[in-house]
Amino acid sequence: MTINLLVICEKQQELDDLEKVVVELRKNNKHIFVCLVSLVSLTGEKLTPTPELFDQAITPSGLFNLAYYKLGLVRKIISILYGIGLLVFFSKRYNMTHILYGVPIVFFRALNFIPLRKYTTFSYVRSTVTMDDSHRKKRSSFVRKSLNAFRFTKSYIADYFFCIDDSTKEYIQGLYPDSDVNKIQNIGSIYSYNLLMSRESELNKKQKNNQKVTKVCFLSSAFSWHGDPQSDNEQVSLLDEFCGKVRQFNLNTTSNLQVLLKLHPRDNIELYSHLIEQKKIKILHDIDVKVLDNSYCFVSVLSTLSYELAQAGFKSLYICNESLKSKYLEWYEKNSIIPLDVCDESLMKSVSNAKVVKSASLIEKKSPQKKLALFIESLVK
Fold first, then answer.
1. Domains of the chain
2. Structure pTM?
């Protein structure tokens, strides 16, 4: 059977990860057609694909000049229906047998509700879910399935899911309590695996595994984007307090730690503008293994990138205050993370002496992208 694969995603890093799955699929399948549809005109997220990986790459024009989530209610609904219509059209035009996407935003979820569809959907969830699912577990299976069917704009929906951590897997399992073991799998992070492989190569060249920490990079989280502006404000205050701790540590020791900031793509830099100016914080734009060695330590309240960097062998720690810890305690516990309290006297000692902890789950013969590709192939009849 020929594989006709439609690839759709929202963000560039998702595309980079899914392209690695396409590479694996092409290794063993001569009869494969891969089409990429970029909804940049609807999502506002520009994608830069690798042209040679796709037999067809399509970027449809949009109806409005703004991303769908920035539109008023009526135009938002029109934009969403238009985007769904485009994806249905291309899936039928090219007789798609498989649809592979990243985190399932509304356009992708709707593809699972098309009557008599002939394709199977796969979602690679490159994000870590921090929501508490206990309220869902109290509902009956029938009620949960009904809610998933009608509230598709707020649910994870696909035929199969591939997660990067156990907390995300557990959350999605709560949405599908009667699913079999293959529907929701934790395969690890594609980004982390490839970063780890590149990092190992660079470290072998430099032979600098035991460098002391001289730069501390704060990774922000887009709390407001996920409907939690209070945590956004607390995050800014936390960074302010952390900078004070670093300054005091430098005064009391011979250290000269430098604070950097890497913003989440959906975070607002204006929230930090006063800190950037007052605290002389530099902005880190890219994660480049040729530049970032073990003299860097990454800290965050919680973020997908922070988790992935730790998996890839970078020094990565979590800091919080009492309020943030109580709010996200369940996520910390599910991922076996002990966050450092920003008020703790031993905080800076922990940061300056941070160690690399390699992920045993990533040091395997099969990469996450290969696992995903092999599973897709196993369903081909």
1. 3-188+364-378 (3.40.50.2000), 204-352 (3.40.50)
2. 0.85
